[in-house]
Amino acid sequence: MPLLFSLLTASAQNKGKVEVVKDPRVDTLIARRAELEKAVGLDQVTGFRVQIYTGANRKDAYATQAKFQEQFPDIRSYVIYSDPKFKVRAGDFRSRADAEKLQADLKKWFTGTFIITEKINPPKTESADE
Q1: Is residue 62 part of a domain?
Q2: 8 A C-beta contact, residue 67 and residue 61
Q3: Are 88 and 51 spatial neighbours (Cβ–Cβ below 8 Å)?
Q4: For the chain, how many structural domains are there in total?
Q5: Contact predicate 30/58, CB 8 Å
Q6: Beta bridge partners of 78
Q7: Which DSSP state fits 126?
Q8: How far is the C-alpha of 103 from the C-alpha of 116, rounded, in Å?
Q9: Can you give the CATH number for the domain in which 84 is found?
Q10: Does residue 40 lie within any of the structural domains?
Q11: Sign of CA dihedral 76, 77, 81, 87
């Protein structure tokens, strides 16, 4: 037992450099994983949306969404079914202040709106090629 302890102590006192040899396929796997996450929506971030409708009537939910899109064609909206209700949510905002601005603008057309926190779709970015 004392011999084993002295060997461990001796080897722990030696300092040196560690060289990590990485297979180039690791970078390929990392890039592939990022592509797959984006394809299945795992690249989403937490943000804010404004809920403009909650109710059990599907037709009313889609009518509300159409009314919203007519007034705000540049803002994405979503109809979500969560048993037993339909919900219409608008926007993909990273900041609560941006969601509050939309909520204030919506008061002319919709009552009872509120802001929720959930996973959002990140805004589309302009690429250098476009």
Answers
A1: yes
A2: no
A3: yes
A4: 1
A5: no
A6: 89
A7: P
A8: 11
A9: 3.30.70.1070
A10: no
A11: positive
In tens, the pLDDT along 94-105 reads 999 999 999 999
Note whether residue 18 is domain-resident.
no
Give the torsion sign (CA, 96, 99, 105, 111).
negative
Between CA 75 and CA 64 the distance in angstroms is: 14
User: Which amino acid, residue 15?
Assistant: K
Strand partners of residue 42: none
Backbone dihedral region of 44: left (phi > 0), alpha (psi from -120 to 50 degrees) or beta? beta
- pLDDT, tens digit, for every residue of 24-74? 787 788 788 777 777 766 666 889 999 999 999 999 999 999 999 999 999
Who contacts 54 (Cβ-Cβ below 8 Å, separation ≥6)? 85, 86, 87, 112
Q: What is the pLDDT of residue 54?
A: 95
What local confidence, expressed as pLDDT, does residue 14 receive? 64
Q: Which helix (H) or strand (E) holds 32?
A: helix 25-40
pTM, whole model, 2 decimals? 0.62
Domain that holds residue 85: 45-120
Instruction: Name the token pair of 72.
Output: 């705000």
